[in-house]
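Researcher: Quick test of sequence recovery. Tokens follow.
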């Protein structure tokens, strides 16, 4: 039977706005994330139109990777990481997004991070944009709704590639780009919140604006891929999808069709465009039925066709159920909701735990696209207890990851061409949806708390040594 490839990319994943901190250091400007306050256990954080005094903004300090990167990468190397996924803070390179020339101090920081990874033979996997659009672009253009953002992103992505492509082989354009198919995408991905201040959960959705903004991201992504292919032929560029597997709630054909439609527009639409290079027919019907008109420039379709990605990456945390029912409890989730599956357990945050769903999902993705696949986020957010002796016993996290890796290996036996696996939040960081520190994912505990206190010291959890053995054995010892 097939086994994991010898050069399988084991590692971990992070995002600049959730762990870097140093939000205004060395010329960095404010991003959308820097305008967000924290919440608790649900998407209850607020966004402000300016930085307010006596208000806590979690991203401003986060876990201060900016000043701890050597210490943290050394710990990743101790675990045996083959790859480290991290993102570039757009406003560290272009503070407003509109500058003509990049901020060299920002580029130098990421070059230092890359060099530190290379020192330990860790392959960097860089997400160019991960939920941190420059706030100045929100104010001026209403985020990605303004087509002007395409040119701004081109300058940004070219600056990153020109500086780092000689040392970095793998890049992703946009994190969880399909967040733009859901209302939360206004904040997380698209920045289409001009003039809005208040709870994120109360933002009024406008599908016309959202899907037009998403089209502009498609074009920007394709242009980035095309530029990389033309100037750095050794570089591989991938997409990144938030995959929430959806099952029909019953075998009623109505439920099956509803689930299929949700899978198409929320999970496959964006990757169909990025992998195949054109809008799928089912999207045309969706736009017509929802009175959405996508305005395109003359060369847009040609650009999408020329800028298809080399490999497919995705996050997988959960599955949910879709159907025509009214008396079933809905469950929480990563930017999406569905009906509770009675056969699954769930996390403290209401995310359903479905390891077999990962195997199913990997098969579905690979059967559809037939290009290499990588799981770049997967993990369990939980409240970890720091014992008096400084230890953290997180057997629940080990159980979660073990069960998912087992199914990942089964998918490889099924024939899936799987490149690697980078669990989310390999070191504790702040939650994207709530800004909490209490929702921890990492193998490494960071002494930082929801009120911003903590000495930022790093401690190994039990899962640290467990994952080290998993990597050493290439997944044969779980």
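Model:
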């Amino acid at each position: 039977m097939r086994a994991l490839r010898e050069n399988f990319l084991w590692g971990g994943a992070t995002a600049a706005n959730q762990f870097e901190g140093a939000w205004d250091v060395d010329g960095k400007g404010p991003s959308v994330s820097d305008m967000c306050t924290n919440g608790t256990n649900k998407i209850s954080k607020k966004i402000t139109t300016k930085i307010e005094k006596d208000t806590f903004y979690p991203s401003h300090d986060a876990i201060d990777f900016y000043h701890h990167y050597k210490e943290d990468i050394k710990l990743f190397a101790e675990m045996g990481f083959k790859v480290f996924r991290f993102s570039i803070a757009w406003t560290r390179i272009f503070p407003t997004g509109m500058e003509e020339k990049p901020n060299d101090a920002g580029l130098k920081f990421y070059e230092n991070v890359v060099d530190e990874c290379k020192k330990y033979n860790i392959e960097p996997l860089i997400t160019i944009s991960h939920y941190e659009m420059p706030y100045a672009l929100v104010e001026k253009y209403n985020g990605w709704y303004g087509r002007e953002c395409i040119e701004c992103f081109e300058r940004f992505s070219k600056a990153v590639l020109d500086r780092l492509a000689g040392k970095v082989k793998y890049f992703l354009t946009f994190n969880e780009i399909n967040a733009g198919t859901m209302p939360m995408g206004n904040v997380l991905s698209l920045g289409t919140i001009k003039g809005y201040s208040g709870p994120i959960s109360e933002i009024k959705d406008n599908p016309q604006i959202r899907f037009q903004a998403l089209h502009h991201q498609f074009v920007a992504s394709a242009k980035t891929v095309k530029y990389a292919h033309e100037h750095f032929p050794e570089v591989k560029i991938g997409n990144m999808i938030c995959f929430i597997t959806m099952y029909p709630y019953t075998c009623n054909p109505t439920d099956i069709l509803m689930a299929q439609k949700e899978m198409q527009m929320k999970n496959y639409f964006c990757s169909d465009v990025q992998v195949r290079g054109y809008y799928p027919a089912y999207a045309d019907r969706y736009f017509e039925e929802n009175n959405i008109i996508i305005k395109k420039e003359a060369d847009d379709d040609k650009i999408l066709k020329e800028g298809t990605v080399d490999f497919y990456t995705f996050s997988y945390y959960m599955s949910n159920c879709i159907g025509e029912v009214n008396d079933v409890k809905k469950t929480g989730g990563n930017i999406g909701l569905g009906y509770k599956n009675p056969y699954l357990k769930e996390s403290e945050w209401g995310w359903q735990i479905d390891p077999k769903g990962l195997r199913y999902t990997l098969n579905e993705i690979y059967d559809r696209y037939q290009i290499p696949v990588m799981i770049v986020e997967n993990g369990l957010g939980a409240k970890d207890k720091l014992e008096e002796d400084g230890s953290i016993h997180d057997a629940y996290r080990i159980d979660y990851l073990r069960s998912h890796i087992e199914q990942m290996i089964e998918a490889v036996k099924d024939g899936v061409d799987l490149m690697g696996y980078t669990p989310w939040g390999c070191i504790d960081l702040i939650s994207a949806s709530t800004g909490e520190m209490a929702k921890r994912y990492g193998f490494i505990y960071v002494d930082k708390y929801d009120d911003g206190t903590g000495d930022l010291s790093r401690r190994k959890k039990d899962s640290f040594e467990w994952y080290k053995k998993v990597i050493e054995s290439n997944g044969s010892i779980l």
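The radius of gyration is 21 Å.
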